[in-house]
Amino acid sequence: MAHPMTVLVTGAGGLLGAEVTARLTAAGHRVLALLHGTGDIVRNDGTRLTPWPGTLVPVTGDVTRPGLGLTAAEGHLARTADRIVHCAAVTDFGLPEERYDSVNVHGTRHVLDLALAGRTPLVHLSTAYVCGERDGTVREDELDTGGRPGNGYERSKLTAETLVHEAAADGLPVTVVRPSIITGAARTGRIRDFKTVYPVLKVFTSGLVRSAPGHYDAVLDLVPVDHVADLVAEAALRFTDARGHTLHAVGHELTLRDFSDVLAEYPSLRVPRFVPPSAFSASALCGRERRYHDRVISLYAPYFRRRVHFDTARAAAFSGRPAPTHGRTYLRRLLDHCLKAGYLGGPPPPRVLAARRTHGSTQ
Which of 160, 183, 266, 286 could pair with 222 as two cysteines, CB 3.0-4.6 Å apart? Predict the structure, then answer.
């Protein structure tokens, strides 16, 4: 192994940040784990990472503040880092625009200021959905292709990534990693936080919203959290090979037809009906259904319209691993974990599990 490095990881307490931190420390490197508060660093499997001066050093800070809100001593420590991995971001939908700007845009600017001061190599976490609302294949070397951002989160991440590319043009060593929709572990389906697409699953499968605007050939791209963390950590550790590249960390493509067909395998789960957006009227929904549509489903409406495919040529060449496949099998794994954990009700009955074993290789 090359000599141990010091890596500053922002958002180290988040789902992805914790997994990246675990991989870097396991590889023998010291991580300065920037935390917004004094909470523990909990991995996706529920285990806690234990602070240790030689490998894991928690640092309390705030990316929304200049200098990341660090004390003089902590700031000096941060400036000695060999790498910066910027995971900190607000990823919830439906928040005020100022919140996205404060964390995702200004936070990135403050991280860039720190990186530029020492020309510290930066691995920046963006999103594959900086492409905005568009169809077709999105290449890794594309950024602003004119597609309208689907929501405030996408807008802020597009702005932030643009800042990163401007810094790269000024000589900052940069790698950008763009995950799609981060979901549970590849083999177990386990997820620490039921965020991203999970509230949509809950609202749909409980029958709280029975119809929504969408195209059955629209594509949801779900990527296991461990796949993303592997790629991010590898980009930090093999930065010379990753420098200057944008890497799509994407995964299991599922059309809404796939989504509906898999849900239909579970007797306890309701299956939503997707209506062409031009023919859908939210005002025609009943009172309770309209409320859940407006509060949850409408926030994800762009994802039910896009017929998009994310190219992974560079990511595959860099990592040596192709993007995951077998989307239907993976979705079953996610649903099984949700049921087991009680998020979508009880566990699936044995007869359903037995029947689905015959579909193990179905995509």
Answer: 183
